[in-house]
Amino acid sequence: MGTSGPLVLKSLREQVYDHLRLLMTHGEIQPGSFINQDELASRLGVSRTPLRDALLQLEAEGFVAILPRRGVRVRPLTLEDIRHLYELIGALEGTAVLAAFPKLGEAEIRTLNGLNAEMKSAVLADDFDLYYDRNLAFHDVFLDRCENELLVRIVRIQKQRLYDWPRRQGLVKDWELASLEEHAALVRLVARGDARAAADHLRDVHWSFGVQEPFIHRYYFGEAVEASP
Known about the structure:
With 229 residues, this protein is mostly helical. It has two domains: 12-74, Winged helix-like DNA-binding domain superfamily/Winged helix DNA-binding domain (Arc Repressor Mutant, subunit A), CATH 1.10.10.10; 79-221, Four Helix Bundle (Hemerythrin (Met), subunit A) (Up-down Bundle), CATH 1.20.120.
């Protein structure tokens, strides 16, 4: 008779947190809205304590704001928020690729190229969900090989703020195609063994707010802006 590993049970706070994030991702709790804690606790069948604890975690991560005497408001994602998130993620992913670089060999390069090819097919097929999944997996190739667990956790949480606010389903094809070219350039730098250039490329191109700003306006706000000369 075989044995299984230990059963991992989530705390009630963690379950409530996961449920709230799912509601945000699916747009059932909208940015700018206030959360009715009594109604939500009743709907979930929990006391106010695990709900309060989950909301405190969401506040620490930037998803909500707890306002004295007013309640809990889901924070809208502003252009300034996006600018700061790009700066943060770019700096951290650059650090992550430097840390992971000794572990990025031929197998990882093949994986990166394969994921980039799948992303291109997804864009051409208008398959947003596949593109979204493979894009995260591409970056996870080096994040998974970075031993700084706190850094990786922060990056993934902040990406959730960018991508799941709530999750948008439309592609901005020229942005996605440009991103694929940036991915390909990153893979070439990894294959060349140039760790510093790979880190700089992530920070100064792929996660550069200035470089990506015209696409950001279109994707998040439905606005067209002129690219900087």
